[in-house]
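User: Working on a comparison across species. This one is Response regulator from Chitinophaga pollutisoli. Can you predict its structure so I can line it up against the others?
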Amino acid sequence: MLVDDDADDQEIFGYALKELQTPVTCLFARDGREALEKLAVAEPKPDYIFLDLNMAPMDGRACLEALKSDAGLRDIPVIIYSTSSDPRTREEMMRLGASGYWVKDVSVAKLCGWLKNLLETPQAV
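Assistant: Here's the predicted structure for Response regulator from Chitinophaga pollutisoli:
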């Protein structure tokens, strides 16, 4: 699942997944609230949640906290996928339970590489 309010970022992410030529289904949500609503009924649950930070009405930080406090969702790895490269933000998100932190890059090739590595080696988050 990708939680991101930017339609271009959703499109790029979807494109990168298609480029991998791996049978993957990706759910999309525009903010944390919509993600939680979709996750409440999603079966099966996603293997990963990629979470942007700057969204409204529910931002990524609040969504991460909600995910990690929900017994049915807390074990899904959450990877922060943000434009922020601030080390303090990274540290805070990891402290709140994020499994990884990727800074958005303009390179689709780099995103494809990250995703390929993650799908081939899940512990590489």
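For your comparison, note: The beta strands are 2-3, 28-29, 49-51, 78-82, 100-103.

User: Helpful, thanks.
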